[in-house]
Specification:
Elements: H1 16-34, E1 46-51, H2 57-68, E2 72-76, H3 89-96, E3 102-106, H4 110-118, E4 124-126, H5 134-148, E5 155-159, H6 164-176, E6 179-183, H7 192-198, E7 202-205, H8 208-212, E8 217-220, H9 232-238, H10 246-251, E9 257-260, H11 272-275, H12 282-302
Parallel strand pairs: 1-2, 1-3, 3-4, 5-6, 5-8, 6-7, 8-9
Helix pairs in contact: 1-5, 1-12, 2-12, 3-4, 5-6, 5-12
Bound molecules: phosphoric acid mono(formamide)ester (CP) and norvaline.
């Protein structure tokens, strides 16, 4: 009997030591690529990528990562597969996982990736759901490590919607052992059960400057995530005081970094001055999606480094 597949649906699917090792590996893979070293641990392997929402970074980083590893990636959209015509997710999982070596899914309900994973013979990776965006956090944690070293014991401010990115930062605070302060307007809090399980490492405040006070890292995300576009006007009013600007950055430590998973809306959740300024590391953060996910694919598909 073969072993059950190992999935990555939330950050907490990794152990703390394993997560740190994965960041080190991502940094090593980045260096290997820059040095022009050929490393193809996934030769003849295929990743299916199911996208029920739009994507630039996630799609390109997974596809390019598979190519660099000697494998192949398939882009599957519900518009032109049976996934969009009501074929049960369990059946799609059984079929796809008999043909490909791993499946990445970006969808709405988190429960859908859980159901898919429960019926898949091969690893399933969460490429974003309404509840979590764990791949982004691997890149964010790699970026912090590259610029500032270990994030353990540091203070992070998440300013904005209590959304999938906020939830993933809450998981990251538990896994990587940092203090997280979330500042959000009333009615846009993160999930109460997740907040409870995060325990003392995560606190909720209303004032974004209080969240940012003495922070080592300030993070924000869009006010209206994919699927919430019709609430844009209502959200713009509710979030008016939550734009990460120079005054919020001034509350943080002088060497604090700024991150945003992108795509960003300058003038809404962040000013151009901040996102295009010297404390912003958003382009490294975006690039690191490639390196961090290559380390993840290597771990899930072949168990770790083969070089
Ligand atoms: N940050 C992120 O996941 O970007 P995409 O939506 O472009 O994939
Ligand atoms: N919270 C955003 C993240 C996009 C990468 C969304 O879900 O649309």
């Amino acid at each position: 009997m073969s072993r059950p597949a190992r999935h990555f649906l939330t950050l907490l699917d990794l152990g703390a030591d394993e997560a740190r090792a994965l960041l080190d590996r991502a940094i090593a893979l980045k260096r290997m690529l820059a040095d022009g070293r050929d490393y193809r641990p996934l030769a003849r392997r295929t990743l299916a990528m199911v996208f029920e929402k739009s994507s630039t970074r996630t799609r390109v980083s997974f596809e390019v990562g598979m190519v660099q590893f000697g494998g192949h990636a398939l882009f599957l959209s519900p518009r032109d597969t049976q996934l969009g015509r009501g074929e049960p997710v369990e059946d799609s999982a059984r079929v796809l996982s008999r043909m490909v070596d791993a499946v990445m899914i970006r969808t709405f309900d988190h429960e859908k990736v859980e159901r898919f994973a429960a019926h898949s013979r091969v690893p399933v990776i969460n490429g974003l759901t309404d509840r979590f965006h764990p791949c982004q956090l691997l890149a964010d944690m790699q970026t912090y490590r590259e610029h500032r070293g270990d994030i353990r014991g540091r203070r992070v401010a998440f300013v904005g919607d209590g959304n999938n990115m906020c939830h993933s930062y809450m998981n990251a605070a538990r896994l990587f052992d940092f203090e997280l302060r979330v500042a959000c307007p009333e009615g846009f809090e993160p999930d109460a059960d997740l907040l409870d399980s995060a325990g003392p490492c995560c606190t909720l405040v209303r004032d974004p400057r209080e969240a940012a006070r003495d922070a080592d890292l300030v993070v924000t995300d869009v006010w209206a995530s994919m699927g919430h576009e019709s609430e844009q006007d209502h959200r713009a009013a509710a979030f008016a005081h939550y734009c990460v600007d120079a005054t919020i950055m001034a509350a943080a430590k002088p060497d604090a970094l700024f991150m945003h998973c992108l795509p960003a809306h300058r003038g809404e959740e962040v000013t151009a001055e901040v996102i295009d300024g010297p404390q912003s590391v958003v382009w490294d953060e975006a690039e690191n999606r490639l390196h961090a996910q290559k380390a993840l694919l290597e771990l899930l598909l072949v168990g770790g480094p083969l070089d």
